[in-house]
Inverse folding.
């Protein structure tokens, strides 16, 4: 079935990852219904108003909402909605929500007769340094995660047990073809139209790419704990390729780790921006403030399997240089939209 004949539901469509997947689907010719809640529904509709094939749909609670609009009308679901990593959320609720939300979306898809589902997972669900096979997981129990008080450990548990629940559901319903895409630290540009999703200054909306944006915050940058990265455009491509990938009945469980073979390099990023975007040089963080990663201890992911079963090739992954420069350019579009409204933009200080 060609893209123009397919209609896709995207949950979490107003988020950083979900909005880029939505944008790429529309650019590829798919019809898309993007799920959001509250005021984000109108923001989302404005962001993609230039696409007649797009419609924003309100679902107030991903874990209990009524998805009956899908029945007989939609061909696949891409489930991106998920709690963010933070020390300011109710972790027990986030754990329950990650699992319950995923299962509810799967149940609703099954009831609607939809047989193709793609779920956004996370590399954090795998062992820290690998291996990255479809049945490899970070060694933590739900109770250990709750008692740790560590947002990173809790997030890993959320993703791990949600992914396990998704695959167990898929095992019980072999008529459904389920793929889980598990990206590492996602950075790069925001989707065109993203400025409509953040009509006021809101750095939290940038999610993980906030850390790239924060290089423009002079002496107060924020850096991730991870040395790996993947460009948002590669994440979007992986999800879309999964829509037309070989079924699990042929290739086995489709849970794919996704990261660039190169490490992130924030010192290089500062030098790149200074050289290629000199008008931003005075805003940049000091070079030596950026971490210098040791050589990675992580095992490589199975790029051959990724190419064979998903269709995404190692050689096609976006370079760190393009990730950095295209990301910075897109952030300036959002900043300029804020400034045009008379809003004060002091720089990406905190992800709040």
């Amino acid at each position: 079935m060609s893209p123009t004949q397919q209609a896709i539901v995207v949950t979490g469509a107003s988020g950083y990852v979900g909005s880029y997947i939505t944008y790429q689907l529309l650019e590829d010719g798919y019809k898309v219904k993007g799920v959001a809640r509250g005021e984000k529904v109108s923001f989302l509709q404005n962001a993609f108003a230039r696409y007649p094939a797009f419609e924003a749909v309100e679902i107030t609670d991903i874990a209990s909402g009524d998805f009956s609009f899908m029945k007989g009308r939609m061909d696949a679901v891409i489930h991106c909605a998920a709690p963010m990593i933070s020390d300011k959320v109710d972790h027990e609720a986030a754990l329950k929500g990650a699992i319950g939300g995923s299962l509810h979306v799967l149940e609703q898809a099954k009831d609607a007769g939809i047989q193709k589902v793609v779920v956004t997972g996370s590399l954090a669900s795998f062992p820290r340094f690998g291996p990255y096979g479809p049945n490899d997981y970070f060694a933590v129990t739900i109770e250990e995660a709750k008692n740790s008080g560590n947002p990173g450990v809790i997030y890993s548990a959320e993703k791990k047990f949600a992914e396990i629940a998704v695959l167990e559901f898929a095992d019980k319903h072999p008529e459904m073809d389920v793929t889980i895409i598990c990206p590492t630290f996602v950075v790069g540009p925001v989707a065109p139209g993203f400025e409509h999703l953040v009509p006021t200054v809101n750095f939290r909306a940038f999610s993980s790419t906030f850390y790239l944006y924060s290089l423009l915050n002079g002496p107060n940058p924020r850096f991730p704990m991870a040395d790996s990265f993947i460009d948002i455009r590669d994440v979007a491509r992986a999800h879309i390729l999964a829509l037309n990938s070989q079924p699990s009945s042929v290739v086995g469980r489709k849970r794919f780790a996704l990261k660039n073979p190169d490490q992130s390099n924030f010192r290089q990023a500062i030098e790149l921006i200074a050289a290629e975007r000199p008008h931003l040089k005075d805003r940049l963080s000091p070079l030596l403030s950026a971490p210098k990663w040791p050589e990675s201890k992580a095992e490589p992911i199975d790029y051959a399997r990724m190419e064979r079963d998903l269709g995404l090739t190692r050689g096609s992954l976006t370079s760190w240089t393009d990730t950095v420069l295209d990301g910075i350019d897109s952030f300036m579009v959002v900043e300029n939209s804020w400034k045009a409204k008379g809003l004060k933009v002091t720089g990406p200080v905190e992800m709040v």
